[in-house]
What does this fold into?
Amino acid sequence: MKRTQQPLPVEESLLATSSRFLRACRGLPVDHTPIWLMRQAGRYMPEYRAVRAQHSMLDVISTPELAAEVTLQPIDAFGFDAAIIFADILPSLIGMGLKLDFVTGKGPVIANALDSTYKIDLLATPPAEETMLAGTLQAIRLVAAELNPRDIPLIGFAGAPFTLASYAIEGGGSKNYSKVKALMYSEPAAWKRLMNKLVTVQADYLLKQVEAGASALQLFDSWAGSALGRDDYLRYVQPYNRALFRQLQRPQVPVINFSAGTAPYIEDVIACGGDVAGVDWRMPLDWYWQKIGYERPIQGNLDPILLLAPWRELAYRTGALLDSVAGRPGHIFNLGHGILPNTPVENVQRLVDFVRDRTAAPI
Ligand code: CP3
It folds into this structure.
């Protein structure tokens, strides 16, 4: 067949060989919708539980070979279109001087939580390679060496300043965020110093993840939406998230701006920056897409608890989600929050196959 030689648009030619995940992050057409799941390496997988039976959570994160092994488990088991480095958002706080532990049955605990402005001023801002995060940077090098030849991109990530501040001040998870909000309202200058320190540490860490081999980044602002109304978000969070996203533009890898509970002011969240909007499960995907503008790629947003439903319900709801955006480039399939530990493994495989089959472009 004779084809007229039309030069590809510059962006298209640059990305002609890149994976469907990276293409979708740029809003380019793909052969089928890419899929990966937040927290895809985790306790729902028997292979993961076997590693954790031998090693603590912090050991797995800080030992590059173990973190690399766990990162690859869901890729090899299910064939996801992207890997996410196995780590957590909280170890950044260790290098700043906080004592973090993951307690079974309780979750993360910080022994010396920030309960005075004095403690905020004592926090350090060391470069990532001088802290426990060096282990994650090395794990990224190992995984990238394994995945580059397979053309599977690796996502690096970090926590957004508010979400980290909430753990640092509350000393762990929280119901109503009363301590972090009380500090924010009563000591605005100290809040500013804390948030600026977190921006410094997280920007450095994310940029070094790209140097180590991450080909995309995701920022997790998991709790700002549950804690804050719009006015507080604009005043106490937006300036810092903006500053952080601005620093991430330089390496030209796509950056996913994920948040949860932020539907009432999603436009203000997306205005902070990032190339891709990562949205939660609380509103239909197309509702979010219309709000933030169809020109911006979007990631999401199946309710993770649907993976516990019978297959007919899971298939119906996944099909409806895909149909609602059918044909529009720039969709990355994901859950609307992290996968739950009690998810049946077979549902994950069926979901991956279903998304592929349903969205495959006709040849
Ligand atoms: O997505 C991945 O596969 C990468 C790994 C990853 C983990 N945590 C591993 C983990 C990622 C991206 C995170 C991010 C994270 N950690 C967030 C943001 C994402 C979100 O869900 O909102 C938050 C808020 C945390 C903090 C955190 N870490 C909590 C609240 C907990 C305990 C709750 C729980 O699920 O047990 C953790 C521990 C944690 N981080 C586990 C895993 C696999 C479980 C640890 C175990 O093996 O016991």
Q: What stands out?
A: Residues 1-8 have pLDDT under 50 and may be disordered. The pocket of coproporphyrinogen III is lined by residues 38-43, 52, 57, 84, 86, 88-90, 102, 107-108, 157, 173, 220, 222, 337-338 (CB under 6 Å). The longest strand covers residues 154-159.
